[in-house]
Design brief:
403 residues; alpha+beta; 10-stranded mixed β-sheet; 33% strand
Length: 403
């Protein structure tokens, strides 16, 4: 049996299988077949070719350049700064205007700091002490402003105080601003020029309307029906992100300005237009929400001793994020997707065959009709059937096909 099995296996490798088409009068399988064909056809036409433009080659390696300029003037009168006029050179950082810029809206000023010794701020938890041994000499205060001198400075007759430190003194006072400094910042405007290029198609475009009218940028403002005017009001940007400018400006935050280019280069170049969306990126309800940092300006007195003015600024940072893709007709992706559709159609035939010969009640009957084994034994039986038919005077073609 082992030799016969091996011989049958080897001979089976030389078998040739060809398709046999059988018309099956089964309404259920026929309906299933047509529904699957219709679903694949709708998928190819609706999703692959219309929605995803599967007939195009796509370039997503967009090259982008962003230039920003903020405009606006404000007047303040405070006890720390007195009367002061603020323009973009005072409240915009950095000054070169790239794809990210920061607008100061509030600040805390600590003037005339000198390098000497003083008591650490009581707002620093690790600086609290009740005796000198709580302030080891030479160790920095964790989260503080300087290095411990070894002394505990107690205020009045209270038993607790803070460690004395070597630092820029006096140290910074309150932790948060009490009121908004530049209330008019919501009316400031920013000019955002974005130029993009798709190198694969050598196609370039800008979000500024191509016009020779020099007064256009001086009078226009961005709006739903004016996407080619890149002049944005800061308050409108924050509002579009779903937040109130005054509340956000007091402690700061980060606003993302997304410019998305989705260009169909089979259409006219004017159809390639930027789409804008705005969102807050620092997390409005997070414990670490807000945005602030410090900077210092250094001076020397008449004796040549250095001192500085420390400024902790709060404000809104705007990040311009650019993404995009461009597509153009190409025969290669078209043929690939058409070939995939043809393969799916063949898969439908295979699936319906499985249903027909395995899952329905008369599957054994359809299986016998679909598969026919034609071998030497079958040919001998066919010859005998022909001989019998010839003896009865019947035409040979009535018995079946020639061997």
């Amino acid at each position: 049996m082992g030799q016969l099995g091996c011989r049958a296996l080897c001979l089976g490798l030389l078998d040739y299988k060809t398709e046999k088409y059988v018309v099956v009068k089964n309404k259920k399988v026929g309906l299933l077949y047509r529904l699957l064909q219709l679903a694949i056809l709708l998928y190819l036409l609706g999703w692959v070719f219309l929605e995803k433009k599967g007939y195009q080659v796509v370039d997503a390696a967009v090259q982008s350049s962003v230039i920003t300029k903020v405009k606006g003037v404000a007047f303040t009168n405070t006890s720390e700064l007195r009367e002061k006029i603020w323009d973009e050179a005072d409240y915009v950082m950095p000054s070169q205007g790239g794809n990210a810029f920061f607008v100061i809206t509030s600040l805390i000023v600590t003037p005339r700091q000198r390098q000497t010794t003083c008591a650490e701020s009581p707002h620093v938890p690790h600086a609290v002490c009740s005796q000198d041994s709580d302030c080891p000499r030479g160790e920095a205060v964790l989260g503080g402003h300087g290095v411990r001198t070894g002394r505990c400075v107690r205020a009045g007759s209270k038993g607790r105080g803070t460690c004395e430190i070597s630092a820029w003194c006096p140290v910074e006072g309150r932790r948060r601003p009490e009121k908004l400094l530049l209330e008019k910042a919501a009316d400031f405007t920013v000019y955002i020029k974005n130029s993009i290029r798709f190198p694969q198609f050598n196609f370039s475009k800008s979000n500024v309307r191509d016009t020779k009218d020099k007064s256009f940028l001086k009078s226009c403002h961005f709006g739903p029906h004016n996407h080619y005017c890149p002049i944005f009001r800061l308050g409108s940007l924050v509002h579009a992100a779903g937040h109130d400018f005054r509340e956000m400006a007091l402690e700061g935050g980060v606003i993302g300005i997304r410019i998305e280019w989705d260009c169909d280069l089979d259409q006219a170049p004017s159809a390639c237009r930027p789409r804008y969306s705005f969102s807050r990126l620092d997390g409005a309800r997070a414990a670490a929400s807000g945005y602030n940092f410090r900077y210092a300006k250094y001076y020397q007195d008449a004796d040549g001793v250095e001192f500085r003015t420390l400024t902790k600024v709060y404000g809104i940072r705007f990040d311009v994020l650019v993404s995009g893709k461009a597509g153009k007709f190409s025969i290669v992706p078209t043929l690939v997707n058409v070939g995939s559709g043809v393969a799916l159609m063949r898969a439908v035939v295979f699936f319906c065959d499985l249903v027909l010969i395995y899952l329905i009640k008369k599957s054994h009957f359809y299986r016998e009709k679909k598969y026919e084994d034609v071998g030497p034994t079958s040919r001998r039986l066919l010859a005998e059937e022909r001989a019998s038919a010839s003896g009865r005077g019947l035409p040979e073609t009535a018995a079946g096909p020639p061997s």
